Amino acid sequence: MNEKHLIKKILLINPPSIVKKSWVEGIQTFPLGLASIASVLVKNNYKVEILDCFIENYKRRQSISDDLYRIGMSDDEIIASIKKYNPDLIGVSIQFSIQYLSALHINSLIKEIDENIITVTGGNHVSAAPETIKKNTFDWLIIGEGEFRFLNLINAINTNTTNLLSPEIAYLSDDSHLPDFKNLKIEYIKDLNILPMPSYNLLSLKKYWDMGGGSHWANMFITRGCPYNCVFCSIHTIMGKKVRYKNVDNVIKEVLYLKRELGVNEIFIEDDNLTFNMNWAKDFFRRIIQEKLHLKIHLRNGIRADKVDMELLKLMKKAGVIQLAFAPESGKQETLDNIINKHLKLKDVENSIKMANKVGIYVSCFLVVGFPEETLEDVKETIKYAFKLKKIGSDDVWISCATPYPGTRLFDNCIKYGILSKDNINYQELSTMGTVIHNKWFTAEELKNIRDKAMHKLTSHRKLQVFKLLLSNPFMFIHKIRNIIVRRI
């Protein structure tokens, strides 16, 4: 390869967000995965920029169907940004299946600008369903953790050694090079401490802060992996089943950088299993206390209710944790055990909520209804349990519809039951605000209506609670409002 054709400049793109119109106010992005990939590339002397098409024009809303909005930059704005930077290679993230068509569209725009620009895709959807990325769309796809695979791909292209790449990196322009995705054994980063700190400086932090009401916030991932196998979750396809931790010292360095160098005062820890090793978690929060950082910390993605005790909750409170979430998922123990495979006791959820109340930490809970095996009575039992959780002390309860994302056993079950056809899936319908699941006890529309009515009642109760909170604790009131509008997709 001649010098003039070497890859030197890389652009990483987070596509515009596709969301249900009923949930447009709750949308948020923070492409931490792209920032982590960028940090590895920068360390290896590549020039990198990140283009988050959502945040760069988050006030722009384009109706793309009766039920969906596209939020973010227009095509013309995206094209202008690409031309201005003039990259040699572009990586496009597909974190959620609902963004799949948006990402394909971005790729087509890139190829219209210059068909010689190499395009790469990765992310949760790609790792869970690589077969959906068809030939003659992107040039390459990456399965699993992307940091070093992305670097290896660029180095291999620059040295004409792509034939030596691992099977997690697939060349899409030649069918003979495609691996057997179904039987692919994915390798994961054994030691997370070899990863440099994410390139937060490449993100438009001020725009995220303006969108969030002015608070100087950032997201963090500290651990990776989940040993559990919940029917609706595909996190193991990209993160693996073994929980891996960064050293507490390295995490504290990152926190100090966010606080002292970037002015961050509020951190959202997005881990699925932060407290899986309770001793590690206690050491981490003790260090936060020792540093006297005066941070506000959210554990909003959910921690195991059976992986906390009073000592840990007190340390969390003292360290600045103002909100945490538990995910009982169902109000029926049989559903948890036999359908979801959660391996969690509802009694542990209830006890942990009560402990968190005593400590003074704001508690959210997540529930899911509408699994193919559930009856209407099962659904109603979970909704009834939502109100029980409120009485016990959960400040907020969110009910989602079961959504069959690719890479999950729920997806496979829906194919088996004939609910989905693998050859004709509308990925833009895969949203927890609605559902495609139906059975002999309920239609998809009936399930959605039941869920919506329950959430309306829960929200009405919450309005009274918010008013009381405003009178008693204005500081926590501000954060409650933030938690209401920031939702998981």
Which terms would index this structure?
pyruvate-formate lyase- activating enzyme, six-stranded mixed beta sheet, 17 strands, 489 residues, 2 domains
User: Which structural category fits the helices and strands?
Assistant: alpha/beta
The tally of beta strands, per DSSP, is 17
Total helical elements: 16
In what order do the strands lie side by side in the largest sheet? 3-1-6-7-8-9
**In the CATH hierarchy, what is the architecture of the largest domain at level 2?**
Alpha-Beta Horseshoe
CATH class category label of the largest domain: Alpha Beta
CATH fold label of the largest domain: pyruvate-formate lyase- activating enzyme
